[in-house]
Amino acid sequence: MDWLGNHWRKSPALPRIVPLLAYLVLTGFQGKLGPNSQFWIYFLKTMAGAFLLWSVLPFVAEIKWQPSWEACVVGVGVFVMWVGLDSGLIALGLAHSYPKSIPELKLLLGWQASVSPADLPPPWNPHLAFGQDSPLAWLFILLRLLGSSLVVPPIEEVFYRSFLYRWLHQPDFQTASIGRFYPVSFLLTALIFASSHYQWLAAILCAFAYQGLVCWKNRLGDAIVAHAITNFLLGLWVVFRPAWIFW
User: Fold this and answer.
1) Is 80 exceeded by the pLDDT of residue 13?
2) Average pLDDT, integer, range 23-28
3) 161 lies in which domain range?
4) Is the pLDDT of residue 145 over 90?
5) 29 within some domain
6) pLDDT digit string (tens) for 45-88?
7) pTM summary value
8) For residue 154, pLDDT beyond 50
9) In whole angstroms, what is the distance from residue 209 CA to residue 130 CA?
10) Model confidence over 72-131: pLDDT tens digits?
11) How many Cα atoms sit within 13 Å of 200 on the Cβ side?
12) Does the residue 167 lie in any domain?
């Protein structure tokens, strides 16, 4: 572990960037290495993310879970917004004209000619892959629920809400306050965050909520907790609704 720690010491940016970068690289292989590789690669990236997260803890001071009533309100509110967005658009009569996903947005902007099945993420439903209510299916479901609730929030919040938000304001990001409102960084961070999520509008609103919470509380821990609450509730919704499209 000393060799890894030496790498983290070289630059304050590395321990804030590498865990998410490794996570995203492995995500790119999901579904590309066989019909069930989306599940096995998810297992691999969760284990890799957890290991890297553990290794950077001594070098990233802001990774501190901070439970608070504000974090609970934001976490639950983002969950309600995320699952309720489609229903709201249907009620407003905008469901068919509004581009809900990144491929549909690219189509609207003329960045691609059409939306094909290859542009859509494969359905993440272990019951279809391993048999309804099979032990292996429930094992992958439990893994995703834990991974999205405990591993993803600190990795994403450290990169987006701490590093990227401040770095976009000034490259020497550690001299920028995590609790200050920087309008340009606020907007750009949300847009970049949304670009890595399939449902882009929900992701932008989600980023606004989490970054606003960081600015309000002047610390990252509340946003980590809020993100964890959102992902946990969303995971329960996906499994018991069921609504696999959100995974």
Assistant:
1) yes
2) 92
3) 65-246
4) yes
5) no
6) 999 999 999 999 999 999 999 999 999 999 999 999 998 886 66
7) 0.88
8) yes
9) 37
10) 999 999 999 998 886 665 555 554 445 555 566 555 555 555 556 555 556 789 999 899
11) 12
12) yes
Question: Residue 121 domain-assigned?
Answer: yes
Write the secondary structure of the chain as one string of H (helix), E (strand) and C (coil).
CHHHHHHHHHCCCHHHHHHHHHHHHHHCCCCCCCCCHHHHHHHHHHHHHHHHHHHHHHHCCCCCCCCCHHHHHHHHHHHHHHHHHHHHHHHCCCCCCCCCCHHHHHHHHCCCCCCCHHHCCCCCCHHHHHCCCCHHHHHHHHHHHHHHHHHHHHHHHHHHHHHHHHHHHCCCHHHCCCCCCCHHHHHHHHHHHHHCCCCHHHHHHHHHHHHHHHHHHCCCHHHHHHHHHHHHHHHHHHHHCCCHHHC
**What span, in angstroms and rounded, lies between the C-alpha atoms of 21 and 62?**
19
Q: How many independent structural domains does the chain possess? A: 1
Residue 36 lies in a domain: no
Contact 92, 187 (CB under 8 A): no
